[in-house]
Amino acid sequence: MSDVNEMSDPRSGTAGPPEVEENGYWFGVFLFVFVVVFGTAFAALIHALAATFGG
Amino acid sequence: MAIGLLENDYGADGFRTCRVTGLRIHRSAEVPVKMFGLTAVVALIIGGIAALLVALTRWEAVGILGAADFYKFLSLHAWNLLIFWMVFMEIAILYVGGPIVLGRKLPASWMANTGWAVMLGSALLIDYAIWTTAPPDNQPLLTSYAPLQASPLFYLGAIVFILGAVIAALPFFFCIWQQKREEPDKTLPLVTFGAFITGIIAVEALVGGLVTYVPTYLWRIGVVAHIDAAWYRHMFWIIGHGSQQINLAAMITVWYFMTWLTAGAEVVSEKISRGAFILYLFFINMGAAHHLMADPVLSSGWKMWNTSYAVYGAVLASLIHAFAIPAGLEAGRRKRGLGGDTWFGWLRTAPWHDPGFSATAWSIILFGFLGGITGVLMGQMQLNTLRHNTLAVPGHFHGTVAVGTTLAFMGLLYYVIRLFFNKEWVLDWFARLQPHLYALAMSIAAMAMMEAGIVYGAPRRDPVTMSIPGTDFSFAAAGPMYAIMGVAAVLAVAAGVIFILVAVGSLLFGKPARMRVPVPLSLGASGDRPVHDHSMRGTFAMVGFFLAVMALFYGLDWMWLSRLWEFGG
Question: How far apart are CA B500 and CA B506, in angstroms?
Fold first, then answer.
C-alpha cells in the first residue's frame, strides 16, 4: 500500500477520490524526539539553576 | 547524465504543468533551480565534513585537530554552510517563489547561468584561499576582522561571490517587475511576496558586503594604506548578519510553501502575514547590532535604539509568523476534514512520515524554541552581556541556521527531487527518518553549546579551553557539555550523510516519480466556510506554551545577568 496518495492533475477535475492515509508510527517517532529534546532542555535548565544556586 | 537531470518534458512553448501543484513551470526557471540546488548540496557536503572535524576538536577529550588546522576547518565550515549552502539555496528559492509560482518564464535567464558560474567560481576561490592560507596571513573565519589580514584571494573571492549573487538575483526582480507591469491590480501570491522581501533584504546585505570587502581588499593589496578597524566591524555586520536575515526570510517563505504543499495548510490572514514580512523589511537587520554590543566605539544611544526599540519590530514579525503558520496548518487541515474536531487531531494525523513535512515542522518548532528565543535574548542590549563571545553564541546560530534553516531547505530539496527532477527517493525509510534524527541530534548539540557558554562561560572559537597553555585558566568543568555536544554533532553529521545519500542516490538511481503528495491539494479546497472560520485552538495552546517558555528564560537571563561580576569592579 502506498503511504501517500497518487493523483492525477488536481486542477483538471480528474483527480482520484481523496483518500488520506495514516502516517503510521511516524507520529510516535515525532513524539519520541519531541520528548527527548524538550526533556534535555528541561534537564539543562535544572542543571543551570543547580549551578547557580548550588555553589 | 548531468545534462539529462536538468531536462524535463516541456511543451513547444517551453512550459510544462506540474501534475501535483498545477503550477506551469518554464524550463528557463526550472533548470536554474536544479543547478543552484545541486551546488548548494555540494557546499553542504564540504561544510559538513569540516563540521565533523570542528566538533571532534571542540570535544576536547578527542581533540582531533591542532590549532592551525582547527581554524582552517572552522573557516571552511563557516563559509560553506553559513554562506554557500544558504545563498545557493536562496537563489533557487527566489526562482521558485517568482517565475515558478507566477507561471512565468525567467527573464534574462542568461544572467542566472552567469550568476551561478560566477558564484561557483568565487566559492571555489574562497575555499582555495582558506585551504592555502599560511602565516603571516590569518584564517578569515566568518568575520575576517581587519586589521588581521587574510589571503588577498579570500577578499577577492568574497567580492566576486557577492557580485555573482546580485547578478543571479536580478532575473527574479525582472520577473516581479514584468508581473506587476502586466497585471498591476493583481496581488502577488504570499510566497512570491515573501521571496520579494527576501530579495530586497538580500540586496541590502550584498551591497553592504561590497561596501565592506572592496576597501578591505584594496587595503590588503596595498592600494589603501590604512583601514579603520571600527569602521570594518560596523560595516561587516551589514552582510555578516544580513546574510543570516536572508536565511530567515527565505526560510519563512519556505514554511508557508511547504506546509501548503505537504499538509494542506492555508493562509488564515494574508494581510497579517504580509504585514509581518514588511516589518522584516524595515527592522530585521537591526538584529545585526547585537554583534556590536560590547564594542566601545559605538554610542550607547546607537545600541539602545537598535536593540531596545527597533529590534522589536522584527520580533513582532517573527511572533506573527510563529502564530500564522501553525494556525494556517490547523485551520487548513480542519477545513479539509483532516484529524477530526479534537484539539490536536490535525497535528497527530499530519504527514510525519513525509520528510518534506517533518523537516518543515521540526524547522518551525526548533527555530522558535532554540534560535528564536535565544536570538531575542541576545538581541537585547543588557542581556547580550551574558552570552557575548561565549559558546552560547554558536549555540544560538546552530539553533537558527543549522537546525531551523537547514531543515527547511532539506525539506524543500526533498520535493525538488520529486517534483522538479521527477525522481522517487531512494532509501525510502532512511529518508523518512532523516529529519527526525537530524532535529534530535543538532538541537541537543546546540543546547550543549548554550549550556557550556552560559553556565561555564566557555569561549567560542578556541580549540583548547580545558587547560589553556601558560595560564591557570581552565574551562575543564565544561568538559561534560563538550562531550554531549561532540556526540550529538557526530549523530547530526550522520543524519546529514543520510540526506546526501538520499539526495544524490535519488538523482542517480531513483525511479521516475509517481507525482504524489501526502494530502491531495484538491481535498476540501473549495469548502463553503472561509479558512479563518475554522478553529485554531490547538495553535493558541502551543503558542501560549511558547510564550511562557520565552518569558521564563527572559526572566532567568535577567537573574543570571545580575549574578555576573561587575565590570571594572
Answer: 10
Q: Does B561 touch chain A (CB under 8 A)?
A: no
Q: For chain B, positions 287-316, list CB contacts with chain A under 8 A.
A: none
* Counted domains in chain B: 1
B567 in a domain, yes or no? no
Judging contacts by C-beta atoms under 8 Å, the chain A residues touching residue B516 are 2, 4-7
8 A C-beta contact, residue B50 and residue B74: yes
A14 in B contact zone (CB under 8 Å): no
Q: Which residues in chain B have Cβ-Cβ distances shorter than 8 Å to A45? A: 556
User: What's B22's domain CATH number?
Assistant: 1.20.210.10
Q: Is the ipTM of this complex over 0.90?
A: yes
What confidence score (pLDDT) does residue B434 get?
A: 98
A1 touches chain B (CB under 8 A): no
What residues of chain A, 16 to 45, have a C-beta less than 8 Å from chain B? 16, 18, 20-24, 26-27, 29-30, 33-34, 36-37, 40-41, 44-45
Does the structure show a pLDDT above 60 at B85? Answer: yes
Q: Indicate the pairing of strand B15-17 with strand B24-26.
A: antiparallel
Number of H-type helices and E-type strands within chain B: 22, 3
**B358 → closest Cβ in A30, A48, A52:** A30
Which of A6, A27, A36 lies at the smallest CB-CB distance from B515?
Answer: A6
Q: Do B523 and A40 touch (CB under 8 A)?
A: no
Which of B353, B443, B519 should one mutate to test binding to chain A, selecting the residue with the greatest count of A CBs within 10 A? B353
SS in 3 state form for B111-149? HHHHHHHHHHHHHHHHHHHHHHCCCCCCCCCCCCCCCCC
CB contacts < 8 A, A to B, total: 106
- Structural contact between residues A11 and B22, judged by C-beta atoms closer than 8 angstroms: yes
Mean pLDDT of A29-34: 98
Could you tell me if residue B332 is inside a domain?
A: yes
Categorise residue A48: left if φ over 0, alpha if ψ from -120 to 50, beta otherwise. Answer: alpha
Q: How far is CA B252 from CA B8, B37, B52, B249, B478, in A?
A: 29, 18, 28, 5, 35
Distance CA(B421)–CA(B34), nearest Å, equals 8
What pLDDT score was predicted for residue B565? 66
Beta carbons of B520 and A7 less than 8 Å apart: yes
What is the full DSSP assignment across B465-529? -TT-TTSS---GGGHHHHHHHHHHHHHHHHHHHHHHHHHHHHHHHPPBP--EESS-TTTTTT-SS
For residue B544, the enclosing domain spans 2-466+473-520+534-561
- Whole-angstrom distance, CA of residue B169 vs CA of residue B93: 10
Per the domain annotation, does B418 fall within a domain? yes
**Residue B323 grid coordinates:** 502564530
Q: Is residue B145 part of a domain?
A: yes
pLDDT at B377: 92
Q: Quick check: A22 and B451 CB within 8 A?
A: no
> Average per-residue pLDDT in chain B?
93
Of the candidates B356, B505, B495, the residue with the CA atom closest to the CA atom of residue A3: B356
A11 touches chain B (CB under 8 A): yes
Q: Which amino acid is residue B128, in one-letter code?
A: Y
- pTM value? 0.94
